[in-house]
Amino acid sequence: xxxxxxxxxxxxxxxxxxxxxxxxxxxxxxxxxxxxxxxxxxxxxxxxxxxxxxxxxxxxxxxxxxxxxxxxxxxxxxxxxxxxxxxxx
Length: 89
Description:
alpha+beta; 2 helices; 38% helix
């Protein structure tokens, strides 16, 4: 069972949002500084979360039903300061 770990760079706080909360939230606020996450980006994040959950469920099924090696996907990212971040155009 997965969860989202959110890093708020507004206040440097961190918080977790678990699956049952993900399914019921329309908006996300940092519990430390009350900064509001953009709704469109929240929707994309929820879709990505459930995609990874679905992939992991499929990997477990491949293992239990077909004897394939057990694997699990996990996504992690690292903060890159704006001045060091560049996007290919």
